[in-house]
Amino acid sequence: MLNNKKIIRAFAPATVANVSCGFDVLGFAVDQPGDEVEIALNASAEVVIKSIVGDKGRLPLQADKNTAGVAVMSLLNALGLKQGVEITLYKNLPLGSGMGSSAASAVAALIGINYLLGEPFQKKDLLPFAMEAERVACGAAHADNVAPSLLGGVVLVRGYDPLDVVDIPLSGQLYCTLAHPNIELKTEDSRQVLRQNIPLKDAITQWGNIAGLVAGLMKPDYDLIGRSLKDVVAEPIRSLLIPGFNEIKDAAVKEGALGCGISGSGPTLFALSKNYSTADRVGRAMQLQFLKHKLNSEFYVSEVNRKGAYVIAEAVTA
Ligand SMILES: Nc1ncnc2c1ncn2[C@@H]1O[C@H](COP(=O)(O)OP(=O)(O)O)[C@@H](O)[C@H]1O
Ligand SMILES: N[C@@H](CCOP(=O)(O)O)C(=O)O
Fold this sequence. Notes:
Helix 9 packs antiparallel against helix 10 (276-292). With 318 residues, this protein is of the alpha+beta class. The chain has two domains: 5-168 and 306-317, Ribosomal Protein S5, domain 2; 175-303, GHMP kinase, C-terminal domain (Alpha-Beta Plaits), CATH 3.30.70. The mean pLDDT is 96. The chain has ten helices and eleven strands. 35% of the residues lie in helices and 28% in strands. The site of ligand LJ64HWYM has 15 residues, from helix 5. It catalyses: L-homoserine + ATP = O-phospho-L-homoserine + ADP + H(+). Residues 214-288 form the GHMP kinase C-terminal domain. It is found in: Cytoplasm. Pfam families: GHMP_kinases_C (PF08544), GHMP_kinases_N (PF00288).
């Protein structure tokens, strides 16, 4: 008798975490780019990464070091299952980019394994497994990349203990430009440069802005969004690691962006705009500024994603 094998292909989008003022508590997903996995069950009791396409050999193939493998192992553990799983990772996102690269691999793998097992978990309940993978990638189980990559939309992590994730309904159109220069910053390193204490004055500015941003997104009030896209906690320090940061940000706003800041822990910068053509012009302006600082870059324009990760296709092989 033939032993049929079901293979699932799943996609998880890149994400912009923090969104300036929401350090570790706010993030949104974009439509593209994103990571993909092909995942199948087998008769062994081991989780293996069969191959990784697109990483130029840089990512660990050991399942307990790769976020895709860690996330799957964590889910299987929760179910008390010793199940063999094989994963092929299509690594489309640049590493150490600030675009939630480590999160996207974990989320795509989770969507795939959950589907293969008959969906024992609701989408939202997959979050703790993806956070476990983030802990391995950058030493902190932050949820502001994995939550929007999984669920789509703009997501607020209201609290971590217990995890309380809130979907922020977006009522208007919103386009994101991601400008990614060809340098890398490891999230782990750019977390270490942060101050551990914040003066009360800065805290007041920051929580005013995060509340203003959430209100602006929900109304929608584009001016309020623009006024609120300010970060006095992480950006003043992290921006020093990004050549030309202030000029690039100024150029984006001059070209019509509502605001601009560091995507995740950088070096990618994000900008928000009301429509596609502005977002596209903003991307060109940002690229030009990076060039002035001797950096090549690519840029992506996408509407803020409302769908999150999904199964692209399933196939059965003999
Ligand atoms: N599947 C994966 N994708 C990306 N990075 C991974 C993956 N698995 C493990 N890592 C590790 O995580 C680190 C990159 O994560 P991070 O700096 O958070 O990048 P990003 O900001 O793009 O998410 C690297 O040390 C890398 O080896
Ligand atoms: N909140 C985290 C987000 C890191 O995002 P990444 O895309 O750089 O992994 C942080 O700011 O450290």
